[in-house]
C-alpha cells in the first residue's frame, strides 16, 4: 500500500482548494442559516466535475477513485461547502447499473439525495432539502423516485437535512442490501474526509489567533495550556488523515478492508472535528462564542455530523465486531 497521495491527487486537492475558497467562504454557511442558498451549489459542483468524479466515463463521469473524491471533499469540508460530496459518492455506487441516472448525477441535471429510513417517512437525510430525485431502500429493493421533503430548523443549513416521503418509486434493483451497505461505506469515507477538512481549518484558525492575540503582555500561544489544547487537536487531525486515506484507498484497492476502514474513519472523524471546533472556540475566548465569528459554524457542523450515517458508538461497535471476526488478519 502506498500511504501517500500521488501527484494527480495532490494537483486535484490544490485545484479543489482554489475552487472552494473562491466560491464558498465559511461565511456562506452563516448566510445559509439565515435563509440563503448553500454555496457553491450543485450546478457549480457538476460543472467542475466533482459530482461525477466517481461516475464511470461511459455515463459521463470522470471514472475516478474514491480517494480522488476524498481529497477534493476534504477541501470542501474546510469551507463548510454544500451540497455535500457524500451524496455524490453514495449515489454513484447505487447508480452503477443505471447509467441514465448516473449521467444525470454527473451533469447536475437532477439533484439526488439518498434517504435513510423508511421511504414513507425517512429520517433526516443529507442534501434532501434541495433534491429532485431520491434513492431509498424499500423492503430490500433499491428504488428511485420523486418525493416531498420536509426540512427542520437547521443547526447546520449547509447539510440540507430533511425528512422525505416518496411520492413515486421505480425499482432499480431487487435484494439490494449489500449494494446499499457498500454505498453507505463509501459515503462514510467521504463524510470523514469532509470532517477532516473542517477540523484542519478549525485548528488552523485557532493557531492563527493564538499567534496574534496578546494577554498579560504575551501572545496567548506562548501559554502552556493553550499549546496543549492546540497540539491535542492537531494530533487528532493528523491521525484522522491517515485513516481517511486508508479507507479511501481500500474502497478500490482492497474492498475487503473497506467496512472496517470506513467505520474506523467515521468514528474518529466525529470525535476529532468536535474537539477541533471546541478548541477553536475556547482559544478565541469571548469572541469565539459570538454569532459574528466563524468558529461556531464549525461547531455546528461537528454536532450535526456526529449523527449522520450512524453515530460513533455504532461505528466503533462495527470496528470491534469486524476485528474480532478477523478483518485485521
UniProtKB/TrEMBL annotation:
Its cofactor is FAD. One of its GO terms (molecular function) is acyl-CoA dehydrogenase activity. Gene3D superfamilies: Acyl-CoA dehydrogenase/oxidase, N-terminal domain (1.10.540.10), Butyryl-CoA Dehydrogenase, subunit A, domain 3 (1.20.140.10). Residues 189-321 form the Acyl-CoA dehydrogenase/oxidase C-terminal domain. The keyword Oxidoreductase applies. It comes from the Bacteria. InterPro entries: AcylCo_DH-like_C (IPR036250), AcylCo_DH/oxidase_C (IPR009075), AcylCoA_DH/ox_N (IPR013786), AcylCoA_DH/ox_N_sf (IPR037069), AcylCoA_DH/oxidase_NM_dom_sf (IPR009100). Keywords: FAD, Flavoprotein, Oxidoreductase. Residues 7-89 form the Acyl-CoA dehydrogenase/oxidase N-terminal domain. PANTHER family: ACYL-COA DEHYDROGENASE, ACYL-COA DEHYDROGENASE FADE28. Belongs to the acyl-CoA dehydrogenase family. This is Acyl-CoA dehydrogenase. It comes from Geodermatophilus obscurus.
Amino acid at each position: 500500500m502506498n500511504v501517500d497521495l500521488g501527484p494527480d491527487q495532490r494537483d486535484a486537492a490544490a485545484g479543489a482548494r482554489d475552487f472552494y475558497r473562491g466560491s464558498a467562504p465559511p461565511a456562506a454557511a452563516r448566510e445559509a442559516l439565515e435563509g440563503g442558498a448553500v454555496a457553491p451549489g450543485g450546478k457549480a459542483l457538476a460543472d467542475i466535475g466533482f459530482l461525477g468524479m466517481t461516475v464511470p466515463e461511459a455515463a459521463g463521469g470522470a471514472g475516478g477513485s474514491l480517494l480522488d473524491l476524498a481529497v477534493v471533499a476534504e477541501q470542501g469540508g474546510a469551507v463548510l461547502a454544500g451540497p455535500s460530496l457524500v451524496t455524490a459518492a453514495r449515489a454513484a455506487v447505487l447508480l452503477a447499473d443505471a447509467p441514465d441516472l448516473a449521467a444525470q448525477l454527473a451533469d447536475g441535471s437532477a439533484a439526488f439525495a439518498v434517504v435513510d429510513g423508511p421511504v414513507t417517512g425517512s429520517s433526516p437525510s443529507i442534501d434532501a432539502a434541495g433534491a429532485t430525485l431520491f434513492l431509498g431502500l424499500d423492503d430490500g429493493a433499491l428504488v428511485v423516485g420523486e418525493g416531498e421533503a420536509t426540512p427542520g430548523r437547521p443547526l447546520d443549513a449547509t447539510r440540507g437535512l430533511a425528512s422525505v416521503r416518496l411520492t413515486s418509486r421505480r425499482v432499480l434493483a431487487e435484494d439490494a442490501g449489500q449494494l446499499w451497505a457498500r454505498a453507505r461505506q463509501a459515503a462514510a469515507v467521504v463524510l470523514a474526509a469532509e470532517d477532516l477538512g473542517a477540523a484542519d481549518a478549525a485548528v488552523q484558525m485557532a493557531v492563527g489567533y493564538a499567534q496574534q492575540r496578546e494577554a498579560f503582555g504575551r501572545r496567548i500561544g506562548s501559554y502552556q495550556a493553550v499549546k496543549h489544547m492546540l497540539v491535542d487537536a492537531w494530533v487528532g487531525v493528523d491521525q484522522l488523515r491517515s485513516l481517511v486515506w486508508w479507507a479511501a484507498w481500500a474502497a478500490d484497492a482492497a474492498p475487503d478492508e473497506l467496512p472496517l476502514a470506513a467505520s474506523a474513519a467515521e468514528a474518529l472523524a466525529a470525535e476529532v472535528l468536535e474537539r477541533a471546533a471546541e478548541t477553536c472556540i475556547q482559544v478565541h475566548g469571548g469572541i469565539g462564542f459570538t454569532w459574528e465569528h466563524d468558529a461556531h459554524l464549525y461547531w455546528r457542523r461537528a454536532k450535526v455530523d456526529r449523527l449522520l450515517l450512524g453515530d460513533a458508538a455504532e461505528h466503533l461497535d462495527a470496528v470491534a465486531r469486524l476485528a474480532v471476526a478477523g478483518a485485521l488478519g
